[in-house]
Amino acid sequence: MGRVNAFILSRTGSEVAMIPEVANHLINSGGKRLRPMLTLATAALSDYRGDGDVKLASAVEFMHTATLLHDDVVDGSEMRRGKLAARMLWGNEASVLVGDFLLGQAFKMMVEVGSLEALRILSEAASVIAEGEVMQLAAAKNTATTEDEYLAVVRGKTAELFAAACEVGPVIAGRPREEQAAARSYGMNLGIAFQLVDDALDYGGREAKLGKKVGDDFREGKITLPVVLAYRRGTAEERAFWKRTLENGEAEDSDLSEAMRLLTKHGAIDDTIARARHYGAIARDALGIFRGRAEAEALVDVVEFVTSRAH
Amino acid sequence: MGRVNAFILSRTGSEVAMIPEVANHLINSGGKRLRPMLTLATAALSDYRGDGDVKLASAVEFMHTATLLHDDVVDGSEMRRGKLAARMLWGNEASVLVGDFLLGQAFKMMVEVGSLEALRILSEAASVIAEGEVMQLAAAKNTATTEDEYLAVVRGKTAELFAAACEVGPVIAGRPREEQAAARSYGMNLGIAFQLVDDALDYGGREAKLGKKVGDDFREGKITLPVVLAYRRGTAEERAFWKRTLENGEAEDSDLSEAMRLLTKHGAIDDTIARARHYGAIARDALGIFRGRAEAEALVDVVEFVTSRAH
Questions:
Q1: What are the domain boundaries of chain B?
Q2: Does the CB of B47 have a partner CB in chain A at under 8 Å?
Q3: Neighbours of B162 (CB within 10 A)
Q4: Core-most of A182, A214, B50, B117, by most CB within 10 Å?
């Protein structure tokens, strides 16, 4: 990971001073570097020898960073990882364009590795991520979103990059199709678990741990799994509450405590965690064919780490 | 070009209905398809056989379309090619995300062609384009921008994609380095000429031909070559006018006629066209090594077409 960090920093440089300023603000803001770590781990699990894993891991982190910059513009977010979002400091314009720059840099790194298959996987991921975000934009204000529809959004906007980050490890090592599919499945399900825990934390986490305020999703009118569950389990009157606050965008700060009460009443947060554990279990089982390998054990620990963030 | 159009339309599809809506609004809005045409022409000039040129040409047009979607958000533009900009119909959010989707699709197309060298050229272009836009953002309100600084912006935000579109033709045909460099040089200088003519037209073109209003650059406070020239040739009082209207953003509709008067007084529009012709001449000469080829003659005609738009 030290080499990934060094490589990342070497590629945010530009004669245009604003680019490294904006990029490094976010890159050095204490992200967990979970996605690049997955690429290194699956490459190690595949006995990969070379430096392609470091470059692909860095490309994955750049893609993730570009997405965050654009997301914050799309959502109008003010905070990111406990700091002001880049758009609050340099404006929406710079956030859009520096995101585009990082995406271009990500593809340059992938080209350097020279694996067309890895390029195919990651460019497909770039399209699917954007597709998931547009889907969320279209569904954002619809409290009648079904759990299946919401999961389709999560697969696109979050899990696809986890899946791609894991799949490229065995791919550059030239491992058999079966192992590539196993790594992809692990990543996809870990990514879903990760997002669902995030959704739950938004209503229950402590601010310092979260890096943003409790209830941000509520204030932004985002329909996430806790709300989908509470809406479906609620009375007509409760549904009217969710419609007023989220669909009509009339949420006031004082509404958050009522939202929390309804979520608790219906066990929506606990059940969101339970759903996350289910996907975590699938991720673990996907690694079954690597049983006994130390790297596989470490990847299983990641599942535990991700799902236990909820406590 | 028929095959390019068909391929483009086949790749804007998505289950997420908003994506083809937004993408096709812009793609079908009567753009000149100049950039993909350059890829087809330089591939033909290189005796390329295969369908990679159609895919790369489509990828180039997708990169261009993604840039336009993001530009209109960054500039807050209301019109594009005589129609409402996508952001006015679907919002800034959708424009950012659909741009990201198209960029992902562009890279998928390039991967299908399988040329790592073409991928390297076009991913480098994606970074440089974004860099040029950020540079423009930083320089946008500075009336003291020098002609050289402005040309650096133009190379990045416009000419780089022309250069890359031309370079990939001989690259996928496996032609010698000398021919690749000639095609790149042609594209780069044609791109600069194109942008300078555009800058001149913004102050002098007829609205129907322009697809946007005369004086849009002025109203948006953009420093383009006509202004750079008029500022440097102007009196202290005139510089104060440019500072007030562009740098301080206090331009009123009534100021446009004064701006036009100053531009005319200093011959700034005519000289912008003269500068464009200079780059057009470099583009023509770059093709010298292909003398006698019908495709080279056609590419020379493109230079004439681009620079004579000014009349």
A1: 2-308
A2: no
A3: 29
A4: A182
- Answer whether A94 sits within 8 Å of B134, measured CB to CB: yes
Residue among A157, A153, A179, A151 at smallest CA distance from A166: A179
3-class DSSP assignment, residue B81: coil
Q: Phi/psi at A76 (nearest 5 deg)?
A: 65, 30
A24 exposed, middle or buried (CB, 10 Å; 0-12, 13-18, 19+)?
middle
Lowest-confidence region among A46-60, B202-216, B269-283: B202-216
Residue range A233-251: mean pLDDT, rounded: 94
Contact B137, A97 (CB under 8 A): yes
Q: In chain B, which residues have their Cβ closer than 8 Å to the Cβ of A101? A: 127, 130-131, 134
Q: Residue B177: what residue type?
A: R
The string of DSSP codes covering B125-176 is HHHHHHHHHHHHHHHTT-TT--HHHHHHHHIIIIIHHHHHHHHHHHHHTT--
One DSSP character per residue, B224-282 reads -HHHHHHHHHS-HHHHHHHIIIIIS----TTHHHHHHHHHHHTTHHHHHHHHHHHHHHH
Residue with tokens 């899990």, as numbered in its chain: A159
Closest to B121 (Cα-Cα) out of A117, A111, A13? A111
Q: What are phi and psi of A159, to 5 degrees?
A: -70, -30
Statement: residue A208 has pLDDT above 50 = no
Q: Does domain B2-308 fall into CATH 1.10.600.10? A: yes
**pLDDT of res. B212:** 64
**pLDDT at A71 exceeding the cut of 80:** yes
Q: Do B108 and A98 touch (CB under 8 A)?
A: no
pLDDT in tens, B201-212: 999 865 445 566
How far is the C-alpha of A22 from the C-alpha of A99, rounded, in Å? 9
- Locate the DSSP E strands across A111-150: none
Nearest CA in chain A to B91: A74
- Say if residues A23 and A98 touch (Cβ distance below 8 Å): yes
